[in-house]
Write a structure and sequence with these properties.
By secondary structure, this protein is mostly helical. The chain contains 13 helices and no strands. The protein has one domain: MetI-like (MetI-like fold, Orthogonal Bundle), CATH 1.10.3720.
Length: 252
């Protein structure tokens, strides 16, 4: 405990390129960038599968394969490819030994929860509600954006909640390949036998994960339609439930 307090209260550890704020920003930026790239790949595919019902079996199988592979194994598999492709794509081979394997592993691990949440959320929407919207003359884009996505938002945000926690954990492991972030304190603490640095890194990563989880949980509740919240009142007839959306679609 004394080593932890000493390290955490040392002003030198709160400034510079190896300081706690810098490492925290590195960790967050890497995680957000990975989730952003995963969103570009997984979200459109998940929405398409959920809206049309096509390719659902393929999507589920690919997602399950992605979930079954450990994050460190993904990095190890990508590492030789990243080094071999350095001359072809013209990037610094040192990136192939650090950032690229970590980043690609994080992207691949973030894709399954986003993909599954997108198409599962849309498939959970009452089909009678969707058919009523079609019967009222709403276009497929209006149904997707005005009905299916808002009603699927709790499940969709839950997928992002899982994805963020996975990439935060993977970024921590990625410090083994000199990927930076808060995990660097853990790796360096073990290498230097510095208990203060090690315990500080563990606490920072745990605090970041808990903070992100709490924030995503709050966002999930905020984005849940009022009628789907505990104690909320929902309309009994699908046509009545579509009246505001249909009006908005006509106004657009």
């Amino acid at each position: 405990m004394d080593a932890l307090v000493t390290f955490a209260t040392d002003a030198a550890n709160w400034s510079g390129t190896n300081g706690i704020p810098t490492r925290l920003v590195e960790h967050l930026m890497l995680a957000l960038a990975a989730v952003g790239v995963a969103t570009v790949i997984a979200l459109p595919a998940g929405l398409y599968i959920g809206h049309t019902g096509r390719g659902q079996l393929l999507g589920i199988n690919l997602a399950n394969i992605g979930r079954a592979i450990p994050s460190y194994a993904v990095m190890v598999m990508i590492l030789p490819l990243a080094l071999a492709w350095a001359p072809t794509f013209g990037y610094d081979p040192r990136l192939g030994l650090s950032v690229i394997p970590i980043f690609l592993a994080m992207v691949l691990l973030a894709i399954p929860p986003i993909l599954v949440a997108a198409f599962s959320g849309l498939r959970e929407v009452d089909r009678d509600l969707v058919e009523s919207a079609r019967g009222m003359g709403m276009q497929e884009r209006q149904i997707l954006l005005g009905i299916e996505i808002p009603l699927a938002m709790p499940i969709l945000v839950g997928g992002y909640r899982t994805a963020m926690l996975q990439v935060i954990a993977t970024a921590t492991i990625g410090a083994i390949l000199d990927g930076g972030g808060l995990g660097q304190f853990i790796v360096d603490g073990i290498a230097r036998r510095d208990d203060g640095m090690l315990y500080t890194g563990v606490i920072l990563v745990a605090t970041l994960a808990i903070g992100v989880d709490v924030g995503m949980s709050w966002l999930q509740r905020r984005l849940t339609p009022r009628s789907l919240r505990p104690g909320g009142t929902a309309r009994s007839d699908p046509a009545g439930a579509l009246e505001p959306t249909a009006a908005q679609g006509s106004a657009a």
